[in-house]
């Protein structure tokens, strides 16, 4: 039986993207980030594809994601960094999962596990999410020294995250991070991995690369910023979202479409019904704007995006029930992109791919 809603993921594209990024940032190491179900692409399949492309590390947000990677038999170096009090740190240590640690209190909790924990100490250099504040750095680092000398932890990494708020602010954060590294070394820490840059910083700021970069959205072939041309870098979008046309109607000019008649046809036109809606992650904010390609012709969402379906105004194009409607994919195939949908919904491409829902079947090809 054919899939009603389909996300086709080209794992060879992920492998290619990681290879391309590795060449760009060489000789530093690369961590492929597969959090949030691999940005909607599937965490396990994306992890394997990234490792095939030469990724040295994998990164996830939380331990649930990390345990899923380990449960799939993937034993590559793995970092998880977002933890609540009482998280399963002992189980994580036994599964060879490195832990991002963001405060002295969290450090003490991790150090209380029965085995030596490998940790990456996070400092806040201006993003103001997690990570130790500047005023806390010295205490944080000294506590790490005490625990490391006692054999309770090993400080494998020191890290932070850029806010990507412009070149001047990025430079300030790079300087702050360098100061954190110097302070850590002054009290006796010798982290082997210093990492600050995610996709945007890794591409735009060579001085932010240090020993390792964390590549997320760029691994999947999408640009991390408006001023980064993913195609020019040789990156290839890995995911195509599509569904079959399930109904076709010819309507007259002035006809209202979908809830509230927020859309009225300007002329006699063909309407194609496609079974993808906000229940599948299609953003409702793209109502009346989202582009859809059918048989090589690009139409627009007509009316409001519903929970299970969208109506597409195809003009005079030849459309039949069963034709494949592509919402976004690889622009080299002359279809809309995740960036096009991001523009239509006033959001970012990260959200467009990550929000794809569980009703959508993910099919992998290489």
List the helices and strands and how they pair.
Elements: E1 6-10, H1 11-25, E2 29-33, H2 35-39, H3 43-52, E3 57-60, H4 63-71, E4 78-80, H5 89-94, E5 98-101, H6 104-111, E6 117-122, H7 137-149, E7 153-159, H8 167-186, E8 193-195, H9 199-204, E9 212-215, E10 239-244, E11 247-251, E12 256-257, E13 263-264, E14 269-274, E15 291-294, E16 297-301, E17 310-313, E18 324-328, H10 338-345, H11 349-354, E19 361-365
Parallel strand pairs: 1-19, 2-3, 2-9, 3-4, 4-5, 5-6, 6-7, 7-8
Antiparallel strand pairs: 1-10, 10-18, 11-14, 12-13, 14-17, 15-16, 15-18, 16-17
Distance between the termini: 22 Å
Number of helices: 11
Helix coverage percent: 25-40%
Q: What would you give as the CATH superfamily of the largest domain?
A: Alanine racemase
Rg, Å, rounded = 23 Å
Shape: elongated
Task: Give the class-level CATH name of the largest domain.
Answer: Alpha Beta
Low-pLDDT residue spans: none
CATH architecture of the largest domain: Alpha-Beta Barrel
> How many domains comprise the coordinates?
2
Strand numbers in spatial order across the main sheet: 11-14-17-16-15-18-10-1-19
**Total beta-strand segments:** 19
H/E series: EHEHHEHEHEHEHEHEHEEEEEEEEEEHHE
- % residues in beta strands: 15-25%
Mean pLDDT: 97
Structure description:
The protein has 366 residues and is an alpha/beta fold. 29% of the residues lie in helices and 23% in strands. The chain has eleven helices and 19 strands. Strands 11-14-17-16-15-18-10-1-19 form a nine-stranded mixed beta sheet. Helix 1 (11-25) crosses helix 3. The chain is elongated.
